[in-house]
Amino acid sequence: MKIISYNVNGIRAAVKKGFLDWLKTHPADVICIQENKAQQTDVDAKAFNDLGYHDHWFCAQKKGYSGVTVFTRVKPDHVQCGTGHQVSDDEGRVIQLDFGKVRLINAYFPSGTSGDERQTYKYQWLEEFYAYLQDLRSVHPHLILCGDYNIAHREIDIHDPKGNKKNSGFLPEERAWMDQLYTNGWVDSLRHFKSEPHLYSWWSQRFPSVRLNNKGWRIDYISVTESLKPHLKGADIYPDVKHSDHCPIFAEVDLAAVNA
Hints:
Deoxyribonuclease I, Chain A; 6-stranded mixed sheet; single chain; 260 residues; alpha+beta; 9 helices
């Protein structure tokens, strides 16, 4: 199963910039979208359906904000919207799909860049979500967590670690959350295959030269539980794809072997 994860920064805007045409040449079994910025009724899903995808949505109550979508060519056994945490669910941040023994989670982590109030909520969300994942693993040991984590984990994952050490997305507490995740039974799929620097998935839109010069952050991840590590077949990013301020990332997992 090839899984693409992509913060499109507005799915309608991404479609206008050629997202559908790109999908025709870069198909995947599952496409996890973050920040759809739409209600399901705002988007004509027929164009995706015509490419062979079922569509599953969990949108924010606030129009034009947040929201996650999953397009999948493989019909899931079960779809669950949310985690039961009210603020997170009101903002449409997590959708989950079961494929046999594997549960795939598509999550849009909060950003703290708009001020102290949202940074405080980000910490709350991270704490709640980690506890949720730990409980979930006792029932579903084979988990895949796709999404925009809004955190650059290590210095290798950001172009200017010294200059950004006090900025949301690279704060010590946020990076410690990533440490906790990856030392407690989770695997960063990209780093399982690639150790080189300058692999980024987001670039600031304030300065056009930032992306041109690859001065970015890696804040988008596909992580898997340790039980799926032997079944990882590849992972990479698509830095030249420009429908958004993010780029798509992907991982391949041998689900047939897991579900055998």
